[in-house]
Amino acid sequence: MGNLSRQASSPAGQLADLRFTEAAISGEERYPDGAIFIGSDEPHFSNVLAEAVATSQPLVIVYPDGRELIGEPREGSLSFAEAPPTKQINPVRAQLLDILSDRAVSDAELANQLGGDISLVLYHLKQLRELGLVDLVETRQKRGATVHLYRASDQAAKR
Questions:
Q1: pTM to 2 decimals?
Q2: Which of 16, 32, 92, 105 has the fewest Cβ atoms within 10 angstroms?
Q3: What confidence tens digit (pLDDT) does each residue in 6-22 have?
């Protein structure tokens, strides 16, 4: 998957944020390279649409009911088509990305925050790291144990 960008501030914007994350995690080529994701009810919608047309940038419009329109540049305008339904992102991965977008956190603290199993957290961290959405930012010793701190990558931060 290529570059994507995201902006969220409304209910459909939050859904667009989730769809952006799903696309980044799944690695599917569902969306055009360089697509901007935006909720249809976001206050700056018309500005983003005008910018996408002016710069010939693909656009994914997400509606509050979950429908998506994908706009691809065509001769000075955007050609839109309704997208087929999407698969849902694994909720653990979505939670990890939300937590890691704020600060660097250890795997043990992540497991504690998610109320669970360190092996499950480690599995999902590995998947997110392989997709380039999470970075290992620090490794240190604490009471004889190695502590790894993770943070959402720049790529994930663009969502």
A1: 0.52
A2: 32
A3: 455 677 777 787 777 77
Tally the domains of the chain.
Answer: 2
Q: Which among 17, 18, 20 has a CA at the least distance from the CA of 1?
A: 20
Mark whether 44 and 74 lie in a shared domain: yes
| CATH code for position 117 | 1.10.10.10
Sole residue written with tokens 């930012």: 137
Q: Are 19 and 76 part of one and the same domain?
A: yes
Measured between alpha carbons, how far is residue 98 from residues 36, 116, 123, 152, 156 in Å? 20, 17, 17, 8, 10
Residues ≥6 apart with Cβ < 8 Å to 134: 96, 97, 100, 125, 128, 150, 151, 152, 153, 156
Alpha carbon distance, N-terminus to C-terminus of the chain: 13
Cα→Cα distances 113→4, 29, 33, 64, 142, Å: 29, 32, 34, 29, 20
Domain that holds residue 114: 91-157
> How confident is the model over 56-112, as pLDDT tens digits?
999 999 888 778 899 999 888 889 888 876 555 677 888 888 889 889 999 999 999
